[in-house]
Amino acid sequence: MDKCLFAFAFGLLMLGGCSARVVTVPPGPLIRVEGQPVSIRCDVKEYTGPSEQDFEWNMLKDAKGQKTKIISSFDSRYSDQSYSKRVASGDISVVRLQDNEVELKIAEVKLTDAGFYECQTPSTDYVISGNYMAQVQLTVIPNTLKVSPKTPPPVISEGSDLTLSCNVTRELIHPTYLSVTWSVKKGTTSEEILTYGPQGDVVTGSRFARRYAEGGIRLVPGRNGVFELVISRMTTSDEGNYECNGTEWTHESGGNWIKIVESTKEMGTVAVTPTGRSLNVKASPSSSPSSTSLVLSPGNSLTLMCGVTADNLPALSLEVSWLADGREIITMDRSGVVISNTSSSGAQGKKGEASLERTETGDYRLGVRGVTIENGGNYTCRIRAFINIEGRRWYMTAEKTSNPVTVKVSEIPSLLGRLGLLSACSIVCAWDQDFFPAHWFREEKGETPRSALLTQDNRKEQFRLPVRLSFEDMTSEPNFTLTLVAEVNPQTTAEPTELACRVTNIANLPLGGRLGVSWEHTSLPGLGGDPQTSHPIGSLDANGNLLPGSIYMERMKSGALTLSRVQPNTFKLRILRTQEIDMGQYVCSVSAWSVNSQGDMVKTSENRSSPLTVRWDTKRPIVNVVAKRIREASVGGSTFELGCSVTTQNIGDAGYSVLIQSQDSLDSTVRTIMTLSPDNVVQHGGATDPNRRDNLVLTKSGAAEFRFRLAGVQLSDRGYYWCDVTAWTKQQPGQAWTKASSSESNKIRINFLENGPSFSIAIKSDDSSVYPWETAKMECSLSVSGSSPKTDDLAYEVKWFFTRLRGGPASVQVASVDRFGVVRKINRNSSSDVTIERKDTHTYLLNIFGTQDSDSGEYFCSVTPWYLSASTGAWTEAQELTSSKVFLAVKFAVWDSLKLPLLYGASASLGVGLFSLVLGLVCAQCCCRNTAHLPRSRNKLMDLEMD
């Protein structure tokens, strides 16, 4: 009896030694704010007895002080008198989350609630082992958070900047942290713009991410808790009621950020005035700003002014166009480039040459030199106002057209015949009888003025117009001065070049005369060209016809090199992407053209500018890449986001290709996850699981910024990630990319700890040895501990492996079942068959039917658990588990193989023996029956001897 009791006690002791009860609460101290809700979780593990455990909560003012009973999960009379009213009102409650986990909740914590909270579980174990209670310190601080926003202006002009200032402060009693969030509310919908903190990081709303990345939204942290958010170039879509939110955080052990109190204050409603309401455009002659009509003679110059006013004029980029009778004649785009339509085909020599320039802010001057009758009409100025939003996208906010200005051009018959002057000199004066009632005069050299009265046949009234004639310079050649300057001088290869050839001090240019230009280039020594030979780039004749040089013809066709006349006296040479061979000396030659007696344009003179040298120091292109973590993957199933910023030196405009690479450790194999080409084509690398490609995103977020996003990270994703960026350039538009330089960024690590449920694996076999053609069964079972999810939130991927006793590889996969229940069997060199059977949620069977001697060996299973994460709502892959090995022997049936031969042999031996015996008896009876009997001797002695 004593031996039985001893064995029973020893069994209980061994059973208790297998597991020890563990009660856990969050690591402290917990810092909370007065008046805010508080929740403290408590769970118990490694216990025996019923699955549903009970909990009791106690409170101590210090770690070893007297306990005060708060609440129990099973005893409604457990609470102390000091807590009974709060428990009854629901201010203090306990909520069961799982069989082994509860949560203590305080609706509005008080300063007096500060202390140590103890979670205790009554024992249901066979033996006492482990801990049955755990404490956590709760610190309650006063609510000192203050949010004081500054009221923004209620109305601002479109394109202006809006500054949202918010003051967020708190008294630093314990180590807490602040964050500030700006949001805009339209109707009942509120949208976050930007959040700063609590770690000093910046998180933008989805609609404002690109705008922030390109500088359209700027954060300006100030002093003493003042934070300013500047929204540049406001549009009508930015209207709304702006709010400022201040939040106080605490950083608890384990790396969790806990929001302990927040306050949201309205800043005010901001309305954006559209540009069209304040935009005004007025056109007038430059000589008479108040007039709306103008009369000119052929050959005169037309000058009109366009005045633009707006409340937000400095924030606007204007496109200015002049129209004659509704037809566009010249335009200055928003970047200042002038495009003239007066030299269109079929109009050569019929209309004057137009020019457009900006004289000051809001004032634009139209000049038409050498007007003809066809230049008459109604002139209007059209303004298109643009606002640059999100860094690169232009938005046209308004368009207006000015009042018309009426321009009339009239021709008067030649005065030469009326006055008897030399036929070599002709004077053409134009008048309109409705505008020019006048007199004509002639003043000869050295004489007093005399009147020449000219009377129209159809009018009785006389017209006088003073005319001074001078003949001394009529035959002189035109004279002018040239100035060649570099308005844009390249500093590195691939940067633009812009040369301007200006004509000044023009003298003796005849009426109707025009200017043409030709450009030449001489290479520098050692750059692939002959330094002694000048190569013609191209020319513009008097009619504006472009004649490209043979060497530069292809570049002009592609737009990489352009020749233009931006003003009547200014010519420009532009190279979009300057190459090293373009270094050298440039010369412009300007020629004067006039109309001969047959009406053809002929060159009368030509001036050549001084050479201008264009060169730069050729430097090695450099690419620098910096990677930063935008979103941290702290738990399985969360999202990891990596940003890479690229800066270059000595490259100019470039395109970029990006490789997102990773490795498990610093000395492991490098894998390519995704690639992005310079033409923004995304491809997945060979290391990408095809089933997870929807979780991978690689985008270009800025001119030289890229973002990589990995959604639903798993344990297999842990490792180092970085960007490998290559800069590419194009010598000319349309050509192939040329590699300039490449570089790798710093490495960002994903290294989260799995805080989900814990899994363990075990394997067992019904029988370690079977006979041939029998069925062998092996069971792979898993157990879950920790925060066990629901059954529907668990899935397993199971693989079975086999190691042959002699020969073959170390281990061969036999069969597998994925987490969706799809079974796959591997081709085997055996006549046996295998199946995988799922007994329950955590148990899988491997059946081997018709076992053979080749099936002998060691078997083990490998399981990858998947569970639905409660924090992220995504399926999370846990760490792969591998079981121990079980041995299966297929016996050789010796008795079964020998029993029939033995039986046959024994039967044959017995038969032969019996046959021999019978045969001997028969022979003895038959052969020895007639033998003679010899009588025994009477001699006794002889008989004895015979015996």
From TrEMBL:
Matches recorded under InterPro entries: Ig-like_dom, Ig-like_dom_sf, Ig-like_fold, Ig_sub, Ig_V-set, IgSF_V-set/TM_domain, Immunoglobulin_dom
Domain (Ig-like): residue spans on this chain: 20-129, 142-244, 285-406, 478-605, 757-882
GO cellular component: membrane
Keyword Cytoplasm on entry: no
One matching Pfam family: V-set
Transmembrane stretches, start-end: 902-928
Compartment(s) of residence: Membrane
Signal peptide: 1-20
Organism domain of life: Eukaryota
Keywords: Disulfide bond, Immunoglobulin domain, Membrane, Repeat, Signal, Transmembrane, Transmembrane helix
Membrane topology: Single-pass membrane protein
The protein's name: Ig-like domain-containing protein
